[in-house]
Amino acid sequence: MNSLFLFLPLILISSSTETITQNINSVMTMSWTIEDSTWIQIRLQCKIKLGYCSIGLSSTMTNCDMFAAITDGKFVTLTDYWATSHDTPKSDKIEGGNEDLVYNYGGVDSLGYIDITFKRKLSTGDSFDQVINPDIRGDICWGYRNNRAGWTEHSDYGSAGFVWATTSANAFFKASNGSKEDHGIAMSVAWGALAVVGIFVCRYFKYTAWWFYIHMSFLLTASLITIISSSQLYKDDAYSVENIEDDTNVHSRLGMLMSSLVIGECVFGFLTSYFKIFTENVQVMTLITRAHKIVGYTLLICGLINCWKGWVLYGDNTGKSLMIFCFALTGAIFMLFEAYQIFVRNGRRNPLALKISCTENEVPGKYKKMSHMKAIALVRKGKKLMFYDDLVIDVGHFYLSHPGGSFMISKCYGEDVGKYMVGCSSYGGNLLPYTHSLKAFSYLSNLAIGRIKYPKNYIIPITEKPQNLMIFQLVFEKPLNDHTFLAYFKSDDFKMANSCSNLLWIGKHFMVCYKTKFHEIIRRYYSSIFVDINKWAYELGILDNFQKTEDGLVKIIFKVYPGGKMTNYLNNLNAGDKIIFKGPLGPGLQLKSLEGNYLAFAGGTGLVPFLDLVYIAWKNLPDGNDFFLTLFVSFKTRKDGFALNILEEMQEVGGKWLKVYIITDESKDKEFLSDIIVETMKKEVSGAWICGPSGYNRYYTDFLVKNGLEKRKIIVM
After folding, report:
1. Was 559 annotated as part of a binding site?
2. 94 labeled part of a ligand binding site
């Protein structure tokens, strides 16, 4: 019940219980006496002559039971309030409750200040009153306004940890002194700025040299701020759950969850870096990386939500406004960059970009012209370079960015990595296989430091069309076995040289590309072949005749795999059907002259470049030349092979410079293959070429290095 009171002289009430007095600040003082198990008497003194002072039974005004004394300079009004937010509270009666404050005495004192004493039950049973639990730690908040009549926005306010003590020994009062506001500011900076920037650079700037340091330092700083700032609040959190309002409890528990998660996130982050740099366990690394990513995004979302919730509880309109701005800005930036990622950075290769060529590389003019020979020379001097189509890319700082681990990067220095960028699994097996999606291409152009020109006269242009978008049509296909085919293509705009007039051309390949009816881009790489296999067989006397093909055709050999999108597409082409070629690409064999002792390992269709090498050596080697080639050819079975009769005949013809081992599951050499290779390596090896599936290439590379061959002498194709 609202009551108006004239000042009454203080009446000292004797009691066997102790009266506790607490100075809240220089303006407000509160005294209380726990009279018995039912009632508490409270005296509120405020140096206010026009305005009000109020006490709330929670740390903030959100869902808070309040009592307020409002003065117009002559009279004091005492009211039981319920605040749902930091806006003007309403009386319990208006909310549907009861007026549970019982006036005792007091009003305006002799100096014109508020001095009023009242009582209420510890537990009123009113849903709009909070229970006062004696000698149990909780919170209070307060606010006052001076020199302005009525219930208006406070001129000062605060909160404190507090105990409604029965004795002075149990008394406790610790004002926040802005600690909650400082905590809110710290957490907003941590999760509204540092975490956002840290995750942003990790997602969109992994091709840079600096992203990792920004990501690590910003996220680590945000984590430390969270742990330190939250700990400052938690260390005084001895409050029972019953004394904490639900919203504050949720906010606090979410903060505790974040404090735990940031520790786990830091552990995941360091483990991710460790596994990327020091191990080759792709599956464990992938699991940890995904856990790191999931926890990171969870923390960011929880952090932003909890910052918002904190400012709502705290009642700071500026904080709420800044968080709304942060939400909007973060969402807008992420959406803009995601759109940029899809439609601009990946635009030439992304399936959504329907009208743009799937093969064209955008290379800024600042990229200098380079050659494969020059780039490989730099690799041998320690530069961490690779090739992708017609680009030279520097991956020196990319080992921490590559999701498959730095070991994948280190094993590919000097290689053309285009063959891995086709969405196929390279490592990892059936559990979490490591694949490259089309999004991987966007990183490559950002890592580029140079561009390699197409070899002159390999492809002879008839028109002015560019070689990164050559349209060829199928002439015919010839089966080499049940699942391997030799395909001939021609173009109205380009012709391929009729013969290999430059040793540096051997082993180069073309990127072959088409778009499905759903505009999915399928791209694969195939070595081209100069020699006409049928003509070669005729020259060796294996065939009685051969059919000459027209000049200028591009020839590729491919094996059809069950479920293979490109090989089945090629196998289903009809004469006249068109497909896109780009090239020639890749470093090839990097052979300057037919001199030296070489090893070659061919797995499946990886035999193609060595057919050209053997044919050219046969036709061009002078007597007494010191060139020698040991060729290891691997097929599952002999029926899976092609051109094997030619190679066997060539070994008879070129016995002085050629040794061929054909390895199949049933061949006798398979059991002793390792010993044969080691024996062959006893003579100084000038170089080794390896061309086959990824696992095949890695196995023989590691084997040769383990047995003493310098890595710089090995070329993986």
Report:
1. yes
2. no
